[in-house]
Amino acid sequence: MWPWYYCGQLTAPVLTLVVGGNHEASNYMQSLAYGGWLAPNIYFVGYASVLRFGSLRIGALSGIYNGHDYLKGHHERPPYDRSTMRSAYHVRNVDTFRLKQLTPDMDIFISHDWPRGVYHHGNVEQLLSKKPFFRDEVESNKLGSRPAEELLKRLQPRFWFAAHLHVKFSALVQHEPVAGDGSAANAADTSRAGDVDAEKAATSGTAAAARTTRFLALDKCLPRRRYMQILELGDGPTELSYDLEWLTVLRTTDHLTSVSAAPQYMPGPGCNQRFDFHPSAEELAATTAAWGADLLVPRDFAVTAPPYDGHSDIRCGRQPAAATDPQTSRFCARLGVRADITLDCDRTLDPDGGGDPAEIALDEDEDEDEDEDAMFVIDRRGTGVTPVTLAVTPASPDVTPVTLATPAKKFKRRNQAIYGAEADG
Ligand SMILES: [Fe+2]
After folding, report:
1. Across residues 98-114, what is the average pLDDT?
2. Which partner from 45, 75, 86, 306 sits 20 to 30 angstroms from 184, CA to CA?
C-alpha cells in the first residue's frame, strides 16, 4: 500500500505523525533528519522533534536504544553495510541531549521503544503472562530504553506513547514531586545540570505539583490484536507547527551535530563550554528573526524517487546513494543549521552507481532477528485490492504514471494461520 500513499493516489484521512523504529527505510528517514513529509498528510518527526498540533505540544524520539552506538554521531550513510544498516536507527545522545533542554510542559511524547522501567508502573504480572520471555529483563530493569527513561523523568509529559514490544500495556507513572521554581523536571535528571537545578529548587523553597504520565503501548497491527486506541485530546486549529523552543535548541546546538563514529560526549557541568541550552528570551527572539514568525510546517512534500511499481523484486536492487531531501535543505537554510547527511563523511559514493566496495546487494543481507526463510511465506493469493494507476504529482515530471500490480502479501510464518483464517472468513 505504501507506494500509493507516497504518490498521492491514496491520502491518509487524518494527519499522521511517524516516529522511526527499527524496521523502516533508514535511507529515506536519514534524508529527513529534521523531519518532513513522507507522503501527503504523513509526517516523519526526524531523529527527534517537538511539534505543535492545535493546543498540543508533542515531543518525539525515533529509533531504538543500543548502548554500543549511543555516543556516536549519525555517521551511517547509504549504501549501508551489514553493520550500518542496523545502527542507522539507533538513538544518539545528541538527540536526547537536545530534548533535555526543553521546558517540561509536554502534552504527548512518542517513542518507538519503551522507557526503561515503565513496566513497574503498570500491571507487570499481566504483561509477563503475555510475554514471559521479558521476565529476566524486567526483574533486572534492563528492558527498554535508558535515554527514554531519562526523558520521561525530565519532561514528565501527560501522555507517552510507544510500541516495539508488540503488546498492549498501560501504566500510570507518578513522578516524584520536586520543589522548585516551576522547572520541576529539571531536578529529576542528575546527568547534566540536575544537581544545579536541584540546588536551586531546594533553596527556592517552593513546591511544584507532582505530575503523572499516562503511558500506553499498543500491539502489532495484526488481526485480533490490540493495536488501536482513540483518545480525544486538545483543541484549536488542526495545523501542524514547529515549536519555537525546539527550533532554538537546534540552532544553538548545531555545533554538536557530528557525523563521526567516534564517541562524542555532550557538554556537562565542569566542562569549559556551554552545557545548558535552555533557550533565553534573546535566543528565542533570534530564532524568530532568522526563521520568521510563521511556524506552520509547510506542506511541501514532493516525490523524489521512482515509485515502486509493484512488479520489481525489491531485494535484488542496489541501494541508492545518500541524498538530502529538498524539505531538509529548505529547513536547514531557513534555520541556519547543517544537515548531517550533507556533511563530510569517510565514504565516497560513485556517482554512476557502481563500483563502491561498501555497497551490498540487498538480497545478500540477512534479516535482523531471525532466519527469514524460516519465518516468512509469500501469500500469492493477493490481497483482493484492485490494481490502480498512480497519478504522479507534477513535482516529479520525470516519473511516469505506472500501474501497480496487486502486491503479494508477505508475513511471518507464525501469523499465517491468522491471515488464512481472516481470508477464509
Ligand atoms: Fe520495533
Report:
1. 97
2. 45
